[in-house]
TrEMBL record:
GO terms for biological process: p-aminobenzoyl-glutamate transmembrane transport. This is Aminobenzoyl-glutamate transport protein. One of its GO terms (molecular function) is secondary active p-aminobenzoyl-glutamate transmembrane transporter activity. It comes from the Bacteria. The chain crosses the membrane at residues 29-51, 85-104, 116-137, 143-160, 167-184, 216-238, 264-284, 304-323, 344-361, 381-403, 410-428, 440-459, 471-495. Keywords: Membrane, Transmembrane, Transmembrane helix. InterPro entries: AbgT. Coiled coil: none annotated.
Length: 510
């Protein structure tokens, strides 16, 4: 990793230290294997100690640590290994999405569209637009992790800027800004349902009038707020530290040729036709991809966004390749897709070891123990007001380093914290928003986040020496800035008393 020729600042020295320490960690494939083995050992130790906690949300029920080194545990290890690999959440999403993206990339469509984009807009707005697009990508669930970071790298390379800076800006928007958006998404549904259920244990009448858009006003404003923060961090911290790119990858920025313009015209025409056809599957009230009662947020359409993305990239990419003669027959298509999949070998290997760790961690119930002990600590310190909310944010941010799934973590924490906050006079809506701020902000600095491995794989295309410490050092400024300033925005919101969303008060007066 190169650095600026000027004397490094205190912040840059700290990040360099984090990079050096982090890079002493084993290769990510090895690290996940070691962590999986550590979970096995801890499960045996804690199980032998008889460790148990009360199950969140299930009064009278207890949760114990499952010993994976027992006879039944060893049986589980051997019989589940293939399933743990296959069921690793990003594996199918990434590989399937790359079918569509791969053909668009290999035919040159993505490159030529980025060149056209760069030539047509003010360069000062490109970083903001990239972070903003990353934040908005949460509408498409996890697909943004696969689509935008590599596009951001290509975009910055075409501008003569460090491609890792573009990858980092996109990754920050997609992951650290996951809970901000101009639209409601599946996240609002998943978390909202859990919040309403937790609130009903204290005040069923209050829970009945809650709605899934309870945080909408705040996340709407946060979209622009975080895009600005992410842009400033990129331009004044990340890019100066990365310095000039000295790698082999180059993206030439030249004017579009007549053939390329013709290819764009026909590919965009095919994209428009594809969009219309897809819209017929979702827009009409009786469309086949609508949910029960005509719902859109909870619907087969939202469950099939990966397929939609594959189609949205594949068809225009195919048309562009045919028009520009980059594709002449079906063999060319198969070869280009094969080349794309060949580049995913490291990610597949990472998915195998990471899948074992994630499965073991869940099977042992260690995540539940961490969450419950965190909740007990928050109760024991007897804080109130803004300090309570800020400590809650910090605790959730820390827990998020070990439990990546927002919904799984909230399923554990909501039954504990929502009632606590309500008893202290704070609304479930506020508790949920504080949770979302913390959960999103630290996503980008934990190797245990399910998409961290694919980001490293993308980054290594531009810097073969990129390792865990290097990526954490690049992303840490975003994480700290988002956590700090997003929390301050929430504090300001609390002080002004502005509703967080439709019927989304700050205080609870039940």
């Amino acid at each position: 990793m190169s650095s600026s020729a000027q004397k490094p600042t205190m912040l840059q020295r700290a990040l360099n230290w984090i990079e050096r320490v982090g890079n002493k960690l084993p290769h990510p494939v090895t690290l996940f294997a070691i962590l999986a083995a550590l979970v096995l050992v801890l499960s045996a130790v804690f199980s032998a100690a008889g460790l148990q906690v009360e199950s969140p949300g299930e009064e009278g029920e207890t949760v114990q640590v499952t010993n994976l080194l027992s006879a039944s545990g060893i049986e589980y290890i051997f019989t589940s290994m293939v399933d743990n690999f296959i069921n690793f959440a990003p594996l199918g999403v990434v590989l399937a999405t790359m079918i569509g993206i791969g053909i668009a990339e290999r035919t040159g469509l993505i490159s030529v569209l980025l060149r056209g984009f760069i030539l047509s807009i003010p360069k000062a707005l490109i970083t903001f637009g990239l972070v903003f697009a990353g934040i908005m990508s949460s509408v498409a669930s996890d697909a943004g992790y696969v689509v935008l970071p590599p596009l951001g790298a290509i975009l910055f390379a075409a501008l003569g800027r460090h491609p890792l800076a573009g990858l980092a800006a996109a990754f920050a928007g997609v992951s650290a800004g996951f809970s901000a958006n101009l639209l409601l998404s599946g996240t609002d549904v998943l978390l909202g349902e859990l919040t309403i259920q937790a609130a009903s244990t204290i005040d069923p009448a209050y829970a009945e009038q809650m709605n899934l858009a309870m945080n909408y006003y705040f996340i709407f404003v946060s979209t622009f707020f975080l895009a600005v923060i992410g842009t400033l961090v990129s331009q004044f911290v990340v890019e100066p530290r990365l310095g000039e790119y000295k790698g082999d990858y180059r993206e030439t920025l030249t004017s579009l040729t007549g053939t390329e313009k013709k290819g764009i015209f026909w590919s965009m025409g095919s994209a428009l036709l594809t969009t219309i056809l897809l819209a017929l599957l979702i827009v009409p009230s009786n469309a086949p991809l609508r949910g029960e009662g005509g719902a859109v947020v909870q619907s087969p359409f939202m469950d099939s966004l990966v397929v939609v993305i594959i189609i949205a990239f594949f068809i225009p990419g195919l048309v562009y390749g045919i028009v520009t003669k980059n594709i002449r027959n079906d063999t060319d298509v198969a070869n280009q897709l094969s080349d794309t999949m060949a580049s995913m070998g490291m990610f597949i290997l990472l998915a195998f070891t990471a899948g074992q760790f994630v499965a073991y961690f869940e099977e042992t119930n260690l995540g539940t123990f961490m969450a419950v002990y965190g909740a007990d600590f928050l109760q024991s310190i007897n804080l109130t007001g803004i300090p309570l909310i800020l400590v809650f944010v910090l605790i959730v941010g820390f827990i998020n380093l070990f439990i990546g799934s927002a919904s799984a973590k909230w399923a554990i924490l909501a039954p504990v914290f929502v009632p606590i906050m309500m008893q202290l006079g704070y609304s479930p809506e506020l508790t949920q928003m504080a949770y979302r701020v913390a959960d999103s902000s630290t996503n980008i600095i934990t190797p245990l986040m399910t998409y961290f491995a694919i980001i490293i794989a993308f980054a290594q295309q531009y810097d073969k020496n990129m390792r865990i410490g290097s990526l954490i050092a690049v992303m840490l400024p975003y994480s700290v800035a988002f956590l700090l300033f997003w929390s301050l925005l929430l504090v300001v919101w609390m002080l002004t008393g502005i509703p967080l969303g439709p019927n989304g008060p700050i205080e609870y007066n039940g």
